[in-house]
Amino acid sequence: MYRLIKQVGKARRGEFVTPHGIIQMPAFMNVATAGAIKGAVSALDLKELKCQVQLCNTYHLHLRPGDETVKKLGGLHAFTRWQGPILTDSGGFQVFSLAKLRNIKEEGVTFASHIDGHRIFMGPEESMRIQSNLGSTIAMAFDECMENPAEYNYARASCQRTVRWLYRCKEEHDRLNALPDTVNPKQMLWGINQGSTYEDLRIENMREIRKLDLDGYAIGGLAVGEPAEEMYRIIEAVEPEMPADKPRYLMGVGTPVNILEAVKRGVDIFDCVMPSRNARHGHAFTWEGCRNLMNAKYELDTLPLDPTCDCPACRNFSRAYIHHLFKSGEMLAMRLCVMHNIYFYNTLLERIRAALDNDQFDAFFEENVAKLGKRI
Fold it and tell me: Ranges for the tRNA-guanine(15) transglycosylase-like domain (predicted)?
């Protein structure tokens, strides 16, 4: 259940009650693709890093170790030791981005595993069964992720297929939740809005999928290479059609600036691999901008990554030491930088929530939108 606490313009301050805890929104979901944050960060670290939600990947967990294996081990919560909310994506994005060979039909998609090439079929029912076995808090509907830009007629036909798939997802999800051996019988289902960069298709698709009265709704198919202004334009077109009493999820976004801009346009929740991926290459997000720890200027720099940050890395280690660890190829470099970036992102959302609570969001936005996009 979503509760809107306060609204400032389009920006929303709310909370979402789930079987595994309350998510304070706006929120960031930390991406644990195969059940772990890349960079040697475990579920036990995440509480200290202000994490509220962990996102795990249906496609990857289906391939390894296998969703039935995860079910036998008690589901993702028992398997990973993360006890808060977990969202699983549908696997659709990976099917379309990783599989070099795929065949899309009304039934679903046949594709080759990116690990060993063996043929796999996934459709709405298969995605729901995998996610039910994983026992996540929130399951995402199976959709087609189009290339962007997509030709208009193809995008229209794809949207219509995604709607038909959503009805099949809902029917199978309801059936699975009612089974006596289901890992999480209170698992929620969120739908995904598609339509490429065509406003009319996005609006039509949102009007169709909201008829199912799902637990939440996502905007998919953005942040895949289109200019940021295109993404903001689509959010502005779709937002008025999204139910006001349900969470709004912008998938795969993004930079700190993207998050500020999307919150301003009414988005509640985000996920992105950027904090961990950039960290593994030595890029630390700070309140002054992005810092590249590979640069020689940090060789003798005794300051923490961000003097205003109290994450475990900043409390204990210097830029010089982390610079040295990266240059030496030490795994600890990635772990410290990943922990810092996750903490930074979760603190950013925490400060956004505080700014909304205190009627200071516009000032917070103006103070940080240019600064956070800088490369130091």
Answer: 10-371
Question: What is the C-alpha to C-alpha distance for residues 192 and 170, in angstroms, rounded to an integer?
Answer: 12
Q: Which two structure tokens, joined as six digits, stand for 361?
A: 């969001």
Of the candidates 129, 21, 159, 138, which has an alpha carbon nearest to the alpha carbon of residue 87? Answer: 138
Q: How many CB atoms are located within 10 Å of the residue 177 CB?
A: 17
Cα(293)–Cα(284) distance, rounded to whole angstroms? Answer: 7
Name the binding residues for Zn(2+).
309, 311, 314, 340
For residues 325, 328, 330 and 335, what is the CA-based torsion angle, rounded to 10 degrees? 30
Q: List domains and CATH numbers for the chain.
A: 2-272 (3.20.20.105), 284-365 (no CATH)
Q: What is the pLDDT of residues 11-61, one digit of tens each?
A: 999 999 999 999 999 999 999 999 999 999 999 999 999 999 999 999 999
Cβ atoms within 10 Å, residue 217: 24
Contacts of residue 38, defined as CB under 8 A and 6 or more positions apart, other chains included, come to 273, 276, 277, 280, 338
Which of 69-73, 91-95, 226-230 shows the lowest per-residue confidence on average (mean pLDDT)?
91-95
For residues 153 and 165, give the distance between their C-alpha atoms in angstroms, rounded to a whole number: 18
Q: Are 98 and 65 in contact (CB under 8 A)?
A: no
Q: Please give the pLDDT value at position 222.
A: 92
Find the mean pLDDT for residues 275-299: 98
Cβ atoms of residues 188 and 213 within 8 Å: no
* Closest C-alpha to 222, from 139, 147, 152: 147
Q: Token pair for residue 340?
A: 């810092």
Other beta carbons within 10 Å of 103? 12
pLDDT band at 100 (very low <50, low <70, confident <90, very high): low
The two structure tokens encoding residue 185: 């019988």
* Residues that are catalytic: 89, 271
